[in-house]
Amino acid sequence: MEEQHAIEVTDLVISYQNLKKTSIKKSLLHFKRRTIDRFVAVKGISFYVRQGEILGIIGKNGSGKSTTLNALAGIFSPDSGTIDLKGHSISLLSIGVGFQGEMTGRENIILSGMLLGFSEEQVHAKEQDIIDFAELGDFIDKPVRTYSSGMYSKLAFSITAILETDIMLIDEVLSVGDQKFKKKSYNKMKSLISNKDRTVVIVSHSIDTLKQLCDTVMWMHEGQIKKIGEPGPVLDEYVKFMEKS
């Protein structure tokens, strides 16, 4: 049987423009001779994720993990290289992404769902399930700018968890909110990613989480793939490397 890939990444390069602190006057005076300083966060990486596979990405801060995840989600555009999602729907669970502060939680549910590619009718059909899971009470009809970080996290998690997509991207938020909600969200996430038709990419620093949940682990270091393979050997080597550095 031919192996099916849900994600194919080829020669991916992503860079940022470095903004150095300087006065407006100095910037204007030196504008013509100023050169653009760029930081290359992802340096020509290639990998694939099989249909139904759970890929974990680990690496120290600044290794390019979240940049890669955001590129898969379509938030960052590559400088060069390609990302092929094979026509699958995709969602990113990352705290701090996507909400409009002046809109209510209920309005943000509709907006987020439509941005994920669902019709307004499809989102409305799941709206009450999202509200019930988030446990925000009357705050669901208040502007998101009035939310605490925990409330914000609960709503973000609930939208992604209830509006199920073919590919789920998860950035360090497997458990959010108070202790009761953490347990509920973790169990919900385990249920979602155990679906053999769903492809998942998890960015995390947690060795235990990646060992328990992932089929494959990709270790990134300074914008490149240092190793990719079975979770045990890759994570053991990563831990030894970090202990020495």
From TrEMBL:
<comment type="similarity">
    <text>Belongs to the ABC transporter superfamily.</text>
</comment>
<dbReference type="InterPro" id="IPR050683">
    <property type="entry name" value="Bact_Polysacc_Export_ATP-bd"/>
</dbReference>
<dbReference type="InterPro" id="IPR027417">
    <property type="entry name" value="P-loop_NTPase"/>
</dbReference>
<dbReference type="InterPro" id="IPR003593">
    <property type="entry name" value="AAA+_ATPase"/>
</dbReference>
<feature type="domain" description="ABC transporter">
    <location>
        <begin position="19"/>
        <end position="242"/>
    </location>
</feature>
<keyword id="KW-0067">ATP-binding</keyword>
<protein>
    <submittedName>
        <fullName>ABC-type polysaccharide/polyol phosphate transport system ATPase subunit</fullName>
    </submittedName>
</protein>
<dbReference type="InterPro" id="IPR015860">
    <property type="entry name" value="ABC_transpr_TagH-like"/>
</dbReference>
<keyword id="KW-0547">Nucleotide-binding</keyword>
<dbReference type="InterPro" id="IPR003439">
    <property type="entry name" value="ABC_transporter-like_ATP-bd"/>
</dbReference>
<dbReference type="Pfam" id="PF00005">
    <property type="entry name" value="ABC_tran"/>
</dbReference>
<keyword id="KW-0813">Transport</keyword>
